[in-house]
Specification:
279 residues; binds calcium ion; binds ligand C2E; 10 strands; EAL domain-containing protein
């Protein structure tokens, strides 16, 4: 019935109404969340595959609503994007994460990288560029310690403005990462014409390395081609030692996943890193 409803404009089903109500109340609650301090960030370690050494973290947004309980980013990020709240949310995550990683560096005793996710809407206008430079400056992190994760759709659909902004931030030394690579339909050869430094193989391929021959072959091809183009490759969603071994054998550069660590609240990071590097 749902599929039929979609193809037929005069049918507006109760489920659709519920969905749009849900989005409205969620965006109202999210507006409140930013002000009320209900947002937080967690940090998922990023490791060098060859040495097992910690390279840095990806900052991931978390929301625990006083009314609705914990809400997954898979739900609230699209709402933030549609309502425009993503600019405020993204700016908050960026400042918080820069400050946290600066403090973590002092605890852990060496410089670390920080990766943040950026939505297309944040790259309209030039405010974002100034925000990034200000957040770096305030925290004392160097631009080359920051990685900005975008999706390939942003590069392909853009009419020049976002790409130009990325080019400008990259000239400061910030690294550009294509997230979820392989989910879209663009080729790496095409993408490499854009200002990018690194690609992140989508976890759906990584998770099928053992079960689907084609996925293993795709992972393999992505690594070979990325290296041929001078790009760094990171695999996300690594959950098993078999996946870890496969990626090692194929020369993948960096890894992230539950096999190593979940995203951690700031106060749990230093202890977890000590355990991770001791193992
Ligand atoms: P993403 O950027 O692709 O982040 C990776 C997601 O996979 C995270 O989900 C992470 O917790 C999860 N993950 C990490 N390792 C594993 C693993 O081994 N197995 C599995 N199954 N999952 C793993 P999370 O935190 O729920 O975030 C979902 C998405 O929400 C992110 O996907 C990103 O697109 C978006 N997001 C999160 N925080 C932000 C933010 O601050 N700004 C923006 N624009 N988007 C964000
Ligand atoms: Ca990401
Ligand atoms: Ca991803
Ligand atoms: Ca290597």
């Amino acid at each position: 019935a749902k599929a039929a409803g979609r193809n037929n404009a005069q049918w507006f089903e109760p489920a659709m109404l519920e969905e749009s109500n849900d989005k409205l109340s969620l965006s109202a609650a999210l507006r409140h969340a930013v002000v009320a301090g209900e947002l937080s960030t967690v940090y998922q370690p990023l490791l060098d595959l060859e040495t097992g050494r910690l390279l840095g973290f990806e900052a991931l947004a978390r929301w625990r609503s006083s009314d609705l309980g914990p809400i997954s980013p898979e739900r609230f990020i699209p709402v933030a994007e549609d309502s425009g709240l993503i600019r405020e949310l993204g700016g908050w995550v960026l400042r918080q994460a820069c400050a946290d990683v600066a403090a973590l560096q002092r605890e852990i005793g060496r410089n670390l990288r920080l990766a943040v996710n950026v939505s297309p809407r944040q790259l309209r206008g030039t405010a974002w560029l100034d925000e990034v430079l200000a957040a770096l400056d305030e925290s004392g992190l160097e631009p080359d310690q920051l990685e900005v994760e975008i999706t390939e759709g942003l590069l392909i659909d853009d009419h020049g403005d976002a790409v130009e902004l990325l080019e400008r931030i990259r000239r400061h030394g910030v690294k550009i990462v294509v997230d979820d690579f392989g989910r879209g339909y663009s080729s790496l050869a095409y993408l490499s014409r854009f200002p990018i430094d690194k690609i992140k193989i989508d976890k759906s391929f990584v998770q099928q390395i053992e079960s689907v021959d084609a996925s293993a072959a795709i992972v393999d091809a992505i690594i070979v081609m990325a290296h041929a183009l001078g790009l760094t490759v990171v695999a996300e969603g690594v959950e098993t030692t078999e996946q870890h071994r496969y990626l090692t054998a194929r020369g993948c550069d960096e890894v992230q996943g539950y096999l190593y660590s979940h995203g951690l609240p700031r106060h749990e990071v230093a202890a977890a890193v000590r355990r991770l590097e001791a193992s």
